[in-house]
Design a protein that fits this description.
Blueprint: H1 2-17, H2 19-22, H3 26-43, H4 48-81, H5 86-89, H6 97-114, H7 117-131, H8 135-154, H9 161-168, H10 174-199, H11 220-244, H12 248-266, H13 272-276, H14 280-286, H15 289-307, H16 310-322, H17 325-335, H18 341-351, H19 362-373, H20 383-392, H21 396-402, H22 404-425
Helix pairs in contact: 1-3, 3-4, 3-15, 4-7, 4-11, 4-12, 4-14, 4-15, 6-7, 6-8, 6-10, 7-8, 7-20, 8-10, 8-19, 8-20, 9-18, 9-19, 10-19, 10-22, 11-12, 15-20, 16-17, 16-18, 17-19, 19-22
Length: 426
């Protein structure tokens, strides 16, 4: 069964990469692949109840991510419908290539540390759509957004799901992970930014006028209020998670409810047609639902590999065959560009106890960095990449040809810096 399941997964993965050639939406392919994988598992199982139970377990964890994505996209769409992002685009609207590229990288890097890499990517997609005219240039900058968001999330205990897992599992502590991985993460952002800055020649063509919504509020008060409430809510999500230990989607839905109530209050005197343009209902119609379904499908397909034990076995094989912690962590980072980094890290957490490697051990810190940044090497290797691929229709092979090698150089540079930093401090 394992061989057949791997064939289905690899074939589905391949069809997703050639979406533009076969003219079949990758969301459809991802959903078909996921269902076929689980059908194969249950048809070959003697304990179907156990399979259903595990399927429900994976559905629960993946649905948390999907609902989080739904809430974040809706909030961003509400801000966009009020032209709230003009507050940012008006301040970074420059045709100076170097200045713009560095501003995009630094803003993304900082945002993903306090939000998370997925939310910050969605925000940056909206901003770049309002700024950049040329599609090729925008795709390069979106590639940089993926790299910067993953790098920014790696050094923060709330910026990436695997770093959060290691924090909750007791393998790392917040202040120490920031101290040990910040500069390595910075290197993995700076090197790719330098490369993209060199590759893009001349000035960048900025849209002559911001793409305002036709029914944009005349009063800047409404625009500014929605922007600050929306961004404030997004920043508040990790605080809710940290203080209450509720899943992140609960905080996101609380924030969605708050901004929903605010829009109802400030537009209550408008007629129904005008108010509808700013409503949550309108925002829900405009968000990219196929991207959410693609996200769900690809994660459910990967979950089937975790269920049959492929990923834990792969982690154990690497551990036995390599024997070197540095190489093991780097390989896990590179594998996370193909597979979900969550089950890979979870497998290593179960393989090693705190007796083997105590809290804040070098191995856990390096693993947090590599698992967080390695996913940038392929566009479907991280939540940020999947969001960009779904929302902006970036071709898998375009990313592989133009961005993957840049991300790989950044990843390896950061890893080498981390290893040297540790060697000098010992």
């Amino acid at each position: 069964m394992t061989i057949y399941l791997l064939i289905i997964f690899v074939l589905g993965y391949f069809l997703i990469t050639i979406e533009h050639t076969i003219k079949i939406n990758k969301s459809a392919t991802a959903l078909i692949t996921a269902v076929q994988c689980w059908m194969l598992i249950i048809l070959n199982s003697d304990d179907k109840g156990h399979v259903i139970s595990e399927l429900e377990h994976h559905l629960s964890s993946i649905s948390e991510i999907v609902f989080f994505l739904l809430g974040a996209m809706t909030i961003v769409e509400i801000i966009d419908s009020h032209d709230g992002f003009l507050l940012i685009t008006e301040r970074i609207k420059t045709s100076n290539k170097s200045k713009l590229i560095w501003m995009i990288s630094v803003i993304t890097f900082c945002l993903s540390a306090v939000l998370d890499n997925l939310t910050s990517t969605i925000v940056m997609i909206s901003i770049l759509n309002k700024l950049i005219e040329d599609k090729k240039v925008k795709w390069f900058l979106l590639g940089l957004v993926i790299i910067s968001s993953n790098a920014g999330g790696a050094w923060s205990p709330i910026g990436d799901v695997t770093t959060t897992m290691l924090w909750i599992g007791g393998q790392i502590t917040p202040l120490n992970i920031i101290k040990q991985t910040f500069f390595a993460s910075l290197v993995s952002m700076v090197i790719p930014t330098l490369i993209v800055n060199y590759k893009l020649k001349g000035d960048i063509l900025i849209k002559s006028e911001p793409s305002n919504n036709f029914n944009s509020p005349n009063l800047s008060f409404e625009r500014n209020l929605i922007f600050f409430v929306g961004i404030g809510c997004l920043l508040f999500v990790p605080i809710i998670k940290t203080t209450t230990h509720l899943p992140p989607y609960m905080g996101m839905f609380l924030c969605l409810g708050i901004i929903w109530a605010v829009t109802e209050i400030i537009h209550k005197k408008k007629d129904e047609d005008e108010k509808g343009n700013y409503s949550v209902s309108n925002a829900l119609r405009k968000i990219d639902t196929p991207s959410i379904l693609f996200f769900f499908g690809i994660l459910m397909a990967i979950a089937s590999l975790e269920f049959i034990g492929v990923l834990p076995e792969l982690a154990q094989y690497l551990n036995k065959s390599l024997g070197n912690l540095n190489i093991l962590a780097i390989c896990i980072g590179l594998l996370s560009s193909v597979f979900d980094n969550v089950p890979l890290v979870a497998a290593l957490q179960s393989m090693y106890s705190l007796n083997d490697y105590p809290q804040d051990h070098y191995f856990w810190e390096l693993l947090a960095f590599t698992a967080g940044t390695g996913g940038s090497c392929l566009i479907i290797g991280s939540a940020a990449g999947v969001a960009v691929m779904g929302m902006e229709k970036i071709d898998f092979f375009w990313y592989l040809k133009n961005i993957s090698w840049i991300a790989l150089i950044g990843f390896l540079s950061g890893a080498i810096f981390f290893i040297l930093q540790h060697s000098l401090s010992v």
